[in-house]
Specification:
The protein has five helices and seven strands. By secondary structure, the protein is of the alpha+beta class.
């Protein structure tokens, strides 16, 4: 089984299949072409491949010095490759944390996305609370973060 991570580029989004239903809800409220174009230009955006199939795309967007917003789009294939996905994401976060001197990662998680909340918790993220009417369709999201204070 061949597994690897590459820098994300625009063609990777179009190659995604089996996007998880909860992620489709998130996509409904954004201009995906503009977003994909923007993310593809960031140095910290990645695609996860298993046997040539993209199982997830992820990255971080600097908010300001030391703080980045984590984003992620996953497929049903992540469930079959949990350990690869988990270990690879931890390595990427640590690599980016050192490279960009990041002391805080944060992300907004749809309240229906229990899988992602549990996964982020296992990676050391903590819930900071509910962000009421956060999305364009006024759906609530959970703010989760991970910090390194020393």
């Amino acid at each position: 089984m061949t597994k690897c991570i590459m820098r994300f580029n625009k063609t990777h989004y179009k190659a995604l299949s089996n996007i998880r239903e909860v992620d489709k809800k998130v996509l409904a409220g954004i201009d995906i072409e503009m977003t994909v174009d923007h993310y593809s230009k960031l140095d910290s955006s990645y695609s996860y491949f298993v046997n040539g199939q993209i199982i997830a795309i992820t990255g971080s967007i600097p908010v300001w010095s030391g703080v980045s917003e984590l984003w992620m789009l996953t497929t049903d294939y992540v469930d079959e490759n949990k350990l690869f996905f988990y270990k690879s994401t931890l390595k990427l976060l640590n690599y980016d944390r050192i490279k960009y001197n990041t002391h805080r990662y944060q992300c907004a998680v749809h309240t229906d996305n229990v899988k992602s909340m549990n996964w982020l918790s296992k990676m050391g993220f903590e819930s900071e609370g509910i962000m009421k009417a956060y999305s364009p369709d006024k759906t609530d999201y959970i703010r989760m973060s991970k910090t390194w204070l020393s």
